[in-house]
Amino acid sequence: MIPLRVTSGCIGCGQCVMQCPTRCLMIRNGKRVYVSSENCSLCGHCFAICPVGAIEIFNMTADQCQVDIKNLQNIDTIIKYRRSIRKYNPEPLQREVLEQLVDFTKYAPSACNFRPLRFLCLSRHCMDEVGAMIAREMSGQFPKLPQQQDQLDIVFRGAPHCIVIYVESNHTHTGMDDAIITMTQLELLAQSKGIGTFWAGMLKTQGNLSAQIKQRINLQEDDMICGCLGIGMPALKYKRSVGRIPYHVDFLE
Ligand SMILES: Cc1cc2nc3c(=O)[nH]c(=O)nc-3n(C[C@H](O)[C@H](O)[C@H](O)COP(=O)(O)O)c2cc1C
Ligand code: SF4
């Protein structure tokens, strides 16, 4: 059984239903939400958005996962409160804001201090075309994707921009580690300023397989896409953090 429970406190507002990325919640008789499928990834977004804290995850209650949302400059708070944002205000961010965020990434660690990363910022027009290309190219694996992409923008989740981090072919051995660190820092920094982000993994996966997609975003065929971050102002606000089960650590002497 999925360790996710909708309690009797549910008021049937349906915010969790809208937010579930795998569409596994439904409202019964317009009154109570229930878990309608086993596809739950336990991401906790329903738990984090519920205005009355009526969902439990891994036996944890909303009260146990409160964070001081006004204090996002605190690193503990921002790590707990960061979520993959999948609902955006379509307004673009100012170019200076994006430039400042990217500028901060120069402080991230880099293997041998090579600093090989290159950045692209895709606009919505480009994302519409690339999203459709990705959906078409992945339709063998996911037959419904082209239609879903058309209706819901599964690839870019409605974000107004996507930052692509890539390296040229002579830096593929260290670029990926640098990029993952950089994306992580960039995401936390953005979310500490109230800007939403999510890892647009489909562009990384399919983009690295497709000469057409690389061409559309001005990359050389042997460039390696290391990470893609959808970014923009969120059109929703989570109320709390999420319940997570801790990783185990073995201590060796
Ligand atoms: C490498 C990677 C790729 C991801 N790709 C996608 C993606 O393509 N679309 C998406 O909506 N979320 C994507 N995510 C977000 C995960 O689904 C998300 O991190 C997870 O469900 C936990 O939720 P949280 O980030 O809100 O804590 C990706 C995350 C990672 C780390
Ligand atoms: S935990 Fe995530 S996947 Fe599971 S029901 Fe809630 S929102 Fe949906």
TrEMBL record:
Q: State the UniProt keywords alphabetically.
A: Oxidoreductase
Question: Does the keyword section mention Oxidoreductase?
Answer: yes
Superkingdom of the source species: Eukaryota
This protein is called Nitroreductase
Note whether NADP occurs among the keywords.
Answer: no
Q: What family does the Swiss-Prot or TrEMBL record give for this protein?
A: Belongs to the nitroreductase family.
Q: Name one GO molecular function term.
A: oxidoreductase activity
4Fe-4S ferredoxin-type domain ranges (all copies): 1-30, 31-60
